[in-house]
Fold this sequence. Notes:
By secondary structure, the chain is α+β, with helices and mostly antiparallel strands. The chain has 1 helix and 3 strands, in the order E-H-E-E. It has one helix at 22-30; strands at residues 8-14, 48-54, 57-63. Strands 1-3-2 form a 3-stranded mixed sheet, covered by helices on one side. A hairpin with a 2-residue loop joins strand 2 (48-54) and strand 3 (57-63). The longest helix is centred in the middle third of the chain and has 9 residues, at 22-30.
Amino acid sequence: xxxxxxxxxxxxxxxxxxxxxxxxxxxxxxxxxxxxxxxxxxxxxxxxxxxxxxxxxxxxxxxxxxxxxx
Length: 70
């Protein structure tokens, strides 16, 4: 018997001001400590890619450095 399963995938970019909890959110959603967390602003200096794999889906999370107002 052939099983017809559809797998879904997508990207999620987490953007926002510095030191508002973007990396903490990513770590919570992934369920592991992937992104470095600190009270010090600009801890994340480069983008970080994390992949959450579920039985029927994959989500690629992009953690970004904070966005500063000009």
